[in-house]
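User: Structure please.
Assistant: Input sequence and predicted structure:
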Amino acid sequence: MSWLADIAKKTQDIPIANLLSDRLGRKPSKQTDAERDELLVKIEILTARNNKLQDVGNIDATQMESQLSEEEVTILQTIASEDEASDYQIAAAFDYSLARAQYHLTRLCENQYLVCNTTLERQSYLLDKRGHDFLAANSPA
């Protein structure tokens, strides 16, 4: 690293060389106890946030199923009877706005009840295995 210091000394006319030689001449600064404690607190906060996010991500299937709204269950039943449906078809069938239909369909896809099939810029929604299982378990006998 001394060769770099030599180059910096030879080219002190250049502003970047002055900055470089100043940095090379300084010893690395140590953190004070207060700075170290502050960093440890930040690490603990970030770790706690990460653990909380993991806990939220580990909600078991029964809790997810209980969070399905009646609308979403009806959408699942409709798609099961039609084999597939687009967001426009769902919006028309339930007299929803397109945004409302897309919200429910997206939620069902995220929770793995539906699969979104995109072909030639046309999206259609199909039941996923979890959707089939949910309907089989919750359909009246």
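The chain has three domains: 1-29, 31-59, 68-138.
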